[in-house]
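User: I want to check something. If I give you two sequences, will you return the structure for each one separately, not as a complex?

Assistant: Yes, each is folded on its own. Here is the first sequence with its structure:
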Amino acid sequence: MKNSLKFAELGKEYYSKVKPEKLNNSHLVHINEELKNKLKLNLTKKELLGVCAGEESLV
């Protein structure tokens, strides 16, 4: 899984890397497909859930 996050290209003063905490019994309630497409997030539902639940990373 690879995605381009343009803010990460701005430099370290604009973001910081943190280790997410995993969630238990997580599930998706709604996916805003329009926003997902604008952000160019080419993720399956399973991958998106993994990112939102702290189990996977976008980078």
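And separately, the second sequence with its own structure:
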Amino acid sequence: MSDAPSRPATASASEEIIRNLGDRIEEARVNGWLGEVQGLQISLDAARNKLASLDRLTRTRNRTVTLG
């Protein structure tokens, strides 16, 4: 068994983080916290990239390989 967390649990947590960051970015925009918006956007981009990476990893691991 792999030490890597399962895709569903990790993806679910990542999706929640992405939603939360989106909410925080909106709050920062409303309050005019431009520096905060920029920092949160960087975190949001990284979270989206991580989720995409997990999706690719899951597709790769679930592939059937015929030997012979």
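Because they were folded independently, the notes below concern the second chain alone. The radius of gyration is 17 Å. The mean pLDDT is 86.
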